[in-house]
Amino acid sequence: MSRTGTRARVRKPRRLRNLGLHAIVVVIGALIVVPIGYGVLGGFKSNQQLSTNPFGLPSPWVVSNYTDVLTSPDFWRQVGNSTFIAVATALIVVAAAALAGFVFARFAFRGRELLFTLFTMGLMFPFAVAILPLFVLLRSLGLLDNPLGVILPQAAFALPVTIIILRGFFRTIPGEVEEAATLDGCSAFGFFWRILLPMARPAIATVSVLAVVNSWNNFFLPLVVFNSPEWWTIPVGVQQFSGQYSTDTAKVLAYVIVAMLPALAFYAVAERQLISGLTAGATKG
Amino acid sequence: MRPETLAADERPAQAEPRRARPASGGDPAGRRRGRRRALVTITLFLLPALVLFVLLVLVPILLAGYASVFKWNGFGGLPTDFVGLDNFTRMFEDPVFLGDLWRGLVLIVLSLAVQLPLALGLALLLNRPMRGRAFYRLLFFAPYVLSEVITAVLFTMFFSPERGLANEMLSMVGLEELSSTWLSDPSSVMYSVFIVMTWKYFGFHMILYLAGRQGIPTELIEAAQLDGASGWKVFRHVTLPLLGPTIRISAFLSVIGAIQLFDLVWVLTEGGPIHASETMAITMFTFGFGRYQVGYASAISVVMFLISLVFALGYQRFVLRRDTEGAITGMRDQR
């Protein structure tokens, strides 16, 4: 009796406290959702509605802002450019980093630690530091207004984290696997290609997702490399669009919301890889 | 953690025998051949990464160092008009650049004092059993996947006094006096930038803390509770110290992120009004790409680099030394 009594007494404040904590989470969730919701609904309003009816639903619903974006060839070209550049960056960085990570994980040679430290130091170089000389370099190589001018530097700057994660993973594969493969007449490349890479599929997926997301969101480099709208990626396109239609808020909102969708869809699909990549990159080293 | 790292460090030693592969019989000539073959493999495998890295990361940084002691408009081969340290003395007499340093410091302090505790608190909250926990986790992290440009354009509209929602929301909850022009008032623009930064990045830090919290064995917390420790005491004496490494890394990423902040501010304000939200990267950009003062802009790059380097090395030396070796190698680009 007395025991159930105390439990009831304990439980009540706890439930109250839980309710309070839950309320905090809900409020913060609302603060995340409100700007996006404002954008989504705002895209369906006219500019006049935006100032006279800030909270209500659009009335009438204006769909032309969204249909304009979805039928705009500029927008789709930007989606295509962003996709192409992100995929190419990921392919190059993962290929180069897998080869290097394999050597760092599995071979002993003089200067290995020095070289590896050099790569890890790359993590500390802010991208902004290199952008100006990079621009000069790309100009003298004739790579301005050329997708390679964005793909190659992005891949180079993504190398450190990719090498670190892949090397860490390659190290966990037991040496016996390699010995067995070597005894069966496998060359170093054969082992790498036919055994190590298939085994490392989760790690490869993680670093690829990381590279794709970083490339997709990159703005600084495409901004300076691509002068011609023909190669603009989504971030550059969104920025230019918002400058061009700065007085047409509703139109810009629709553009921004549609431009969000690919990233959010990718996040929905690849959430696990992305989060494991970020936490591994930040903690494992 | 440490024993595991050590074990991992020893492991490559196992790979050592493959240098002198027994397949070639063990005679000296065969061993030499095996070793040479291993060397060829090492070289070929490292080559692509090394070429990319040297050409597109190291060379530009060295080039920035070289250009920083010249007066140069960025055209016509290498610079020739040597000016010594003039660009650097000019920089430290330039109120805009000195303001950049101050504003960077403000952002760092705000991040450490507001954003990280918020992220930590939410991570601990979401670590408890709660309805919709997975959903909230997903939701709080979602802004992180949006690019800074998209976030900034959205908030430019959101903050708009005529068509935005920010002031309307404040007056709805009775805080009209906090209403502001957000991005066009020099005295408040940095806070607006910070609000957007927090909106976008606290979820990332929360995810780091969640991962760190899940690495703490529940037995430890249960043991403390059995010994009669209150919730606060468990947090103060068990959870917080064990989250130490995660907190230190998350703080490190915040600082590095604030040092190189560009996209968000460029799209929100271009550094204005009257330089009130300018960052080092924006000053560098306006001089290098806007006014063709590439020498001076390079000098700013060099100072940014030195600040990051000194901070990173000092941090690794004095703050992270107790944590896993090499733990500093976190994500670039994250705040």
Tell me what the structure shows.
The complex is a heterodimer of chains A (about 280) and B (about 325). Chain A is an all-alpha fold and about 280 residues long. Chain A has helices at about 1-45, 45-50, 65-70, 75-105, 110-120, 125-140, 150-170, 175-185, 190-200, 200-215, 220-225, 235-245, 250-285. Chain A folds into two domains: about 1-50; about 65-285, MetI-like fold, CATH 1.10.3720.10. In chain A, helix 7 packs antiparallel against helix 10 and helix 12 (about 235-245) packs antiparallel against helix 13. Chain B is an all-alpha fold. Chain B contains 15 helices and two strands. Chain B has helices at about 1-10, 10-15, 30-65, 85-90, 95-125, 135-145, 150-160, 165-170, 190-215, 220-225, 230-240, 245-260, 265-270, 280-290, 295-320; strands at about 70, 80. Chain B starts with a helix and ends in a 17-residue tail after the last helix. At the A-B interface, helix 1, helix 2, helix 4, helix 5 and helix 6 of A face helix 2, helix 3, helix 5, helix 6 and helix 7 of B.
Cα Rg of chain B: 26 Å
> How confident is the prediction overall: mean pLDDT of chain A?
87
**CA distance, first residue to last residue of chain B:** 25 Å
| Strand percentage of chain B | under 5%
Q: Could you say how many structural domains of chain B there are in total? A: 2
What gross morphology of chain B would you assign? flat
Order of the strands making up the biggest sheet of chain B: 1-2
Radius of gyration of chain A: 25 Å
CATH class of the largest domain in chain B: Mainly Alpha
Query: How many separate helices of chain B?
Result: 15
What percent of residues of chain B adopt helix (DSSP H or I)? Answer: 55-70%
H/E element string of chain B?
HHHEEHHHHHHHHHHHH
CATH topology of the largest domain in chain B: MetI-like fold
Question: What structural class do helix, strand and pairing data of chain A support?
Answer: mainly alpha
For the record, the CATH architecture of the largest domain in chain A stands as Orthogonal Bundle
Given the structure, what is the number of helices of chain A? 13
Please, how many domains of chain A? 2
Quaternary structure classification: heterodimer
What's the CATH first level of the largest domain in chain A?
Mainly Alpha
